[in-house]
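HUMAN: Spend a minute on the protein record below and explain its fold to me.
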Amino acid sequence: MNLPHPLPPTLPAGDDPAAADGRFREAMKASNIGMAIVSLDGVWLELNPALCAMLGYRVEELRGHHYSEVTHPDDLAISQNLVAALVSGELASVDEHKRYLHRDGSELWVQLNVAVMRDEDGAARYFISHMRDIRGEREAGIALSARVAEHGAALDASHRQLQLFADAVAHDLRAPLRSIESFSALLADRAGERLNDTDRDYLARIRAAASRMTGLLAMLTELSHVTRAEMRIAPVDLSLLADWVGAELQDADPARRGQIEVQPGLQVEGDERLLKVMLTQLMHNAWKFSGVEAGADETVRIEVAGEARDGVLALTVCDRGSGFDMRYAHKLFEPFQRLHGPDQGGGHGLGLAIAQRVAERHRGRLLAQSEPGQGSTFTVELPLVSRGEENADA
């Protein structure tokens, strides 16, 4: 690459910056980082050997030339904007990655630091530039990004295969469980009179175990669904969803009286399907542990409310049920961890894990507060404007 004849160097008015301080000039020569003094109109007035070696030229071949002659064409506009901002005082200094052209025509990436030198009156006089070759760093970064992407794709494929395996196992287990439940029911009907109390108890245990296993598979499938389902972000009326879930709970258990109070106007952005699953798990948890300590009055009382603050909706689901000891709260959201036995309403240990996963996918969190015999309050903190993982990662 041959440069045109250089322009006559135009030194800043008042003195020669390259001669004003001999020690600075000597430091420039000794530095292994490219350094230059540049006039306000973009002409190189002084360059050190490191900068010339970086670009593939001798000092005399660059001195007096305009920086644009060896700037990559795609970065010219950026350079012009930065120079204007420095001269006007909009920027005090510049730290940018920029492309130049080596003498052999190859692309050269540098980290460019530029500061403007001013006189006592604040008028701009000239620029001091530092340039560092970052081609190796960029190539290493690109290679690392490629490896990370490759490992990420392999991990995603592994997760998909594991999920397909889990789904297949769950599907194949349902058929024999249905058979166990069906034939156990037939046996109870046809041989009931010939069975003694112990036999009937054994048969009831078999049917209950099969039913419990069926429910566990359904919950595992639900956990899988909320973990990998594609999110469809839209405005969501949480009050409407809570009323819906409350009606379903009362329809499924009509023998119990229910008093479910839902605060109107609870709105967020999120995936409506997943948020309904979350509310179902939280309100079902409140339902099954309510009334246990109520004595003669076994009315289930659940309150769903919310408060918006700092861009977050704090949604609370409160009950007056049996509660739990906060010393064991760290186990609440772990799969298969139970703080209550089956006779106390304990389930599969997956409901709260499912609710927490939905909250996490919405970039929120799930908290709990309780006291034995005094009920529990679960708080879901959800961004009012969605920052769901698909929005963040896509």
Remarks:
- The longest strand covers residues 107-118.
- The radius of gyration is 36 Å.
